[in-house]
Design a protein that fits this description.
This protein is an alpha/beta fold and 311 residues long. It has a domain of 210 residues: NAD(P)-binding Rossmann-like Domain (Rossmann fold). The protein is 43% helix and 16% strand. The protein has a six-stranded parallel β-sheet with strand order 2-1-3-4-5-9, with helices on both faces. β4, α6 and β5 form a beta-alpha-beta unit. α5 packs parallel to α6 and α7 crosses α11. The radius of gyration is 19 Å and the shape is globular. The chain starts with 6 loop residues before the first strand and ends with a helix.
């Protein structure tokens, strides 16, 4: 199977993962790449999804998140994160089966791993313990999507692949402090501090949590490989393997933005999970290898923010 000449539907709310994948698939020669945010297609509405599939009959579906965000967004919108992601996944999986799509690639989230599971996370640890409470509604919605992927594969023979990415970043990252993931939020804060001449920047949490990030181009390469060359039922992690504390990440962003003031960590704010690192060896075995270091990826992302460019 190949994406060249194919009709592909990308489902999400237009965050960096879905936008990057959409642009990449168009560049790689897909005949049509439909993105639901460009079409204003609400995938939580079953008749709308049915009508779209009936009319366009996509060959492949890339199913991301119709609602997502950082810690604050999870705390503020738990019902939205649950409802939209579960409803959209149910409607899309059923339509893909009914109208005979060749494959659905479902992007889950590392928040589905149990909070206390040994790390790096492996897929066989899923559902062995409770998830991190601050992202529980989103995590449970993603677990529901995982169950649907397995169910439609086993009962109806629909080709479904489930992948779990590290947090994706790069040009196109959201900088809105209410919705952004950590790198976009940090860049926004440090650039604002530079503009205002602020002596200090406050960063949520203790700075101690360890995280793993994945540059958008590396995510896109993994997406194409999974669409074209993988049809296994086993879940695959997609991570860079480069681990960093939030404190060190903040210093890297400060350096990239030329901010030289004080960085203060507000330990009264939630940290989220203490560590989130993925075992991505199975993806390496398939021939995928991330190519962009965190330092270089942050430099490119900061440049994009500073230039105010569109992706």
């Amino acid at each position: 199977m190949t994406v060249k000449g194919a009709k592909i539907l990308v489902v999400g709310h237009g965050d960096i993962l879905e936008c990057a994948v959409t642009a990449h698939l168009r560049e790689e020669g897909a005949a049509e790449v439909y993105s639901v945010w460009e079409l204003a297609l609400d995938c939580a509405v079953q008749p709308a999804v049915h009508d779209f599939f009936q009319k366009h009959r996509p060959d492949y579906v890339v199913l991301g998140s119709t609602r997502s965000g950082g810690i604050q967004a999870n705390l503020d919108h738990p019902a939205d994160f649950s409802y939209h992601n579960v409803q959209s996944a149910a409607n899309v999986f059923h339509a893909a089966y009914k109208f005979q799509a060749k494959k659905v690639l479902f992007w889950a989230s590392s928040c589905i791993y149990p909070r206390e599971a040994p790390q790096p996370y492996r897929p066989d640890q899923i559902l062995t313990g409770p998830v991190e409470s601050s992202s529980e509604p989103y995590a449970i919605a993603k677990l529901a999507g995982l169950a649907m992927a397995r169910g439609y594969r086993r009962q109806h023979g629909l080709s479904t692949v489930v992948a779990i990415p590290a947090t994706v970043y790069g040009p196109g990252s959201d900088g809105d402090l209410q919705n952004a993931h950590v790198i976009g939020a940090l860049i926004h804060k440090f650039q604002e501090a530079m503009h205002n001449g602020a002596d200090a920047v406050e960063v949520w949490g203790s700075g101690n949590p360890l995280r793993e990030f994945l540059y958008r181009d590396d995510l896109c390469a993994a997406c194409r490989l999974l669409l074209e060359d993988y049809d296994g039922e086993d879940i695959v992690n997609v991570g860079s393997g480069e681990e960093v504390s939030i404190a060190d990440l903040a210093r890297m962003v400060a350096e990239a933005t030329d901010y030289r003031g004080q960085i203060n960590f507000d330990a009264s704010r939630p940290d989220g999970a203490a560590r989130k690192v993925l075992d991505s060896q199975p993806m390496r075995s398939l021939g995928w290898q991330p190519e962009t270091s965190l330092k270089e990826g942050i430099r490119r992302t900061v440049n994009w923010f500073q230039q105010g460019e569109k992706v």
